[in-house]
Amino acid sequence: MSSLLLRLRQVKVRRTWLAILIALLVLLLAYRQGRYPSPRFLTLLVAAGGVALLLQHPELGLHALVVAALAVPMRFSTGTEVMLNPATLLVPALLALWVAHGLLRRELRLAPSRAYRPLVLFLLAGLLSVGLGYVTWAPTVPRPRNILLVQLGQWAIFAFAGGAFLLAANLYQDERALRRLVFFYLAVAGGMALLRVLPGAGPIFGRLSTGAVDRAPFWMLLAALAGGQLLYNAKLGMGWRLFLLATLAAVLVYSFRLQQETVSNWVGVAVVAGVLAWLRFPRLRWLVIPALIVLTLTGVLVRAVYGFAGGQREWEVSGGSRLTLILRVIEVTLRNPLTGLGPAAYRAYAATKPLAYGRALWWVPAVNSHNNYVDLFAHVGLIGLGLFLWFMAEVGLLGWRLHGHKRSGFLAGYVDSMVASWVGAMVLMALADWILPHVYNIGFNGFQVSVLVWMFLGGLVAVERMDGKGSVG
């Protein structure tokens, strides 16, 4: 007993001295900053404090990622057309901190998942395509001086997307921590959505937003997570219910009215709404399926959607031209269909001859396919595209299995919102490079919002681990 009391006194003394040293250090730094003001020194000081905090609680890094992605409007030049941002740079930093935290505590273990293998193979296929594309570059195609840097940047988007997936899969081991992240995101993203549509709030929104709020994956993901909680989580307080309803109203106003001409916005929202309703109300399926069949066969549904999307005028301006771009990308990629031309290389190949559309002739076209599937075919070939689809299939099947286990509560809402987001992401990939942006098109600026989609999809792996431990939704 006496030895125990002695140890407690020693611990108390150590903590007292540690507190005194920390207080003295804070006073010293405050004196130094007051005497020699330096924004750079203050930034480094805050960063050092953040690193110390994240080494103790690495799961808080994903909260920081939400803020950086949506509300830190900073960009950094790379000396090329490619610009970086805090959200992009935060992903590898968080991965390094997670590894360091695990090594320090001797707890570095991966949550089991069948999705890891195709993800790793996809990333390796991307590196293989970089090397092969560089070595076998056609001598008749001018090679940009910075092409290797740009290609590694494109591969980094693949790797950082996988990194965000991996972080969420492994940082959350209980429902409470995941719930905090989801509602933190809903508070930040919902607030940004309301500011976006609120009359007169433009100046405030402009100073806060990264631009991610004006991209289709933002509205798709927000609609899915807000809708999932409203449909399943009976424990939501009245304040949260009203806030989420207001958020969904903002989603509808922006997607179907303010930005009706941007098809990706309202298509993504419509898809997640349809999937959530399909999962939540199974008895309605037998009424919806016959109605959809009849409306499709009679042409009513097609005419209504076509007209809402802009009709013939929109097709001539956007749809037809995109088809022309897609055909050019496929044409040049057939030079090496198995491993592709290498990440971000197809623009150089596609610019070697003029491109005609209608009465216009583009002599030196700067081509983007505006289609993630075509992009991946050009970047990493059929092998890489097949591995990516394998990975996405594993994620989708995981969501479907968890849907059968979770019928109510927060986790049920989260799982079904991720199943809806998965379907929405697969659809949006066909409309533009929304989910794995092309560095020369949507790029790292758009990756700020797609990285959040990858992060929350990784949460399905965390839920699977909770489910194995007997966690109740």
In short:
The chain is an all-alpha fold and 473 residues long. The protein has helices at 2-35, 39-56, 60-71, 86-105, 116-135, 147-171, 175-197, 202-208, 216-232, 238-258, 263-280, 285-297, 300-308, 311-333, 346-350, 372-405, 409-431, 443-468; strands at residues 76-77, 83-84, 355-357, 360-362.
Structure, explained:
The protein is mainly alpha-helical. It has one domain. The chain is 74% helix and 2% strand. It has 18 helices and four strands. The strands form two sheets. The chain has a two-stranded antiparallel sheet. A hairpin with a 5-residue loop joins strand 1 and strand 2 (83-84). Helix 7 packs across helix 9 and helix 9 (216-232) packs antiparallel against helix 10. The model is unreliable at 41-46 (pLDDT under 50).
Search tags:
74% helix, 473 residues, 2% strand, two-stranded antiparallel sheet, mainly alpha
Instruction: Note the total helix count.
Output: 18
Spatial strand arrangement across the major sheet: 1-2
Overall mean pLDDT stands at: 82
User: Total domains, how many?
Assistant: 1
Given as residue ranges, the uncertain stretches (5+ residues, pLDDT < 50) are 41-46
Structural class: mainly alpha
Record the SSE blueprint.
Elements: H1 2-35, H2 39-56, H3 60-71, E1 76-77, E2 83-84, H4 86-105, H5 116-135, H6 147-171, H7 175-197, H8 202-208, H9 216-232, H10 238-258, H11 263-280, H12 285-297, H13 300-308, H14 311-333, H15 346-350, E3 355-357, E4 360-362, H16 372-405, H17 409-431, H18 443-468
Antiparallel strand pairs: 1-2, 3-4
Helix pairs in contact: 2-4, 3-4, 3-7, 3-18, 4-6, 5-6, 5-16, 6-18, 7-8, 7-9, 7-10, 9-10, 9-11, 9-17, 11-17, 14-16, 16-17, 16-18, 17-18
